[in-house]
Design brief:
By secondary structure, the protein is mostly helical. The protein is built from 6 helices and no strands. The two termini are 18 Å apart.
Length: 143
């Protein structure tokens, strides 16, 4: 019995005009404030990667801020030491690197989420839809 036949057996034919809608969604797409247009997909590989990029972006910015605060007052407390110039150079270098990571992750987050929307997380959806398919094993092939 096919999946579709099994569904029909369990739930019967759909009535004419029957439909399901989210309470917050408008029947006119884009009108009457049905939604924000920022649909979030969950647990899909592209969405997961987008979330990871977003988290890394946030951590890079937080690290850059903490790094800057950690160097406040060093110049005043180490007046006359030649290491102050080297320390400032290292700080500037790390701040630039962390900014670059932050900016790249911000781009990636948006791009990966766009892919998730375009693909509609098809890999995950296909996998889920195939869970109900009965696949014969080797013993069934011999009969």
């Amino acid at each position: 019995m096919s999946y579709s036949e099994r569904w029909q057996e369990l739930f019967g034919q759909a009535e004419d005009g029957a439909a399901m809608r989210l309470a917050s969604a408008s029947s006119n797409s884009g009108a009457d404030g049905g939604g924000t247009g920022n649909l979030k997909y969950s647990k899909g590989p592209w969405t997961s990667a987008s979330g990871t990029a977003g988290d890394l972006r946030t951590r890079a910015e937080t690290s850059r801020t903490v790094l800057g605060r950690g160097h406040e007052g060093v110049e005043a407390g180490a007046t006359g030491f030649s290491s102050v110039a080297a320390l400032k150079s290292v700080l500037k270098s790390w701040e630039e690197r962390l900014r670059a990571v932050r900016d790249e992750c911000e781009k990636l987050e948006g791009n990966l989420l766009t892919v998730a929307k375009e693909m509609r997380e098809s890999e995950t959806a296909v996998k889920a839809s195939l869970k109900g398919v009965d696949v014969p094993d080797k013993a069934d092939e011999k009969r």
